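Supplementary notes for students who missed Thursday's class. We covered one full example, reproduced here. Read the sequence, then the structure, then the short commentary at the end.
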Amino acid sequence: MGDLGAGLGYLVKGQRWVGRRGRQYGFGLLPGLLTLVLYGAALVALVFWADDAVGWATPFADTWSALWSAVLRGFLTVLLWALALLLAVVSFTAVTLLIGQPFYEAISERVDASEGSGVPGTGLPLWRELWISARDSLRVLVRVTFYGLLLFAAGFLPVVGQTVVPAVGFCVTGFFLAEELTAVALQRRGLEFRERLTLLKSRRLLTLGFGVPLALCFLVPVVAVFLMPGAVAGATLMARDLTGETAPEPDAVPEPPTGDADRPGGAHTAAAPLPVTPPPARSRTT
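Structure (token representation):
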């Protein structure tokens, strides 16, 4: 359970980091605002087309009574919205990271520098970094879509579909959301997509502690925009934990010598102080 709290702690630390640096915070808001406009248009379209899409997918319900047809299609419309939100949360992060690659890369590098050990860049041109980011985001989206369809089907199960399935859905969303955000820092450390997944699975509770609360917040797109810069900063701090990096301690006091240094004649035995010879007395002339 300690890792769950640590994951949430990194999320809070990231928000504090950008909160103390107003210029970095404003710098990181721009990609999210642009993505919000695009997703707002898509969600408005879904409002108008969700009922038609469900009706097209369930022609067999046309022969049912009006009550049962309305219950089935209403339930499927809710599930469609849930699936759309699941995909929107993860893909929002992916698209925002893709649009804001230079912005968030700069924030991540500054977080590393503030921790006392900067990590060199990848050395790749910008177009190559954008291609890698888009390719890995597509891999995440394929996996999220697969799990989303499974959860969509499981939603038909009584009781389980209304309790367990939503909880599992948030865990899946949180995990891949954390992967997208830590990728900014881990790619600079030379970790490929599968290596990053393995690393996150090795600290699953830490990953969920960071990703699930963020996924809940990201359900509100406007909140997602304002949390995004801090989420990148917090993900960089968590990436340092995952890779075993620690910040130097400039005020650390060296420990006293042990082992042979404690024995007479040891390698570090302190030398005895030299006798101090007083200066000769000066004669007084009369």
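Commentary. The CA atoms of residues 189 and 285 lie 80 Å apart. The radius of gyration is 29 Å. If anything here is unclear, bring it to office hours.
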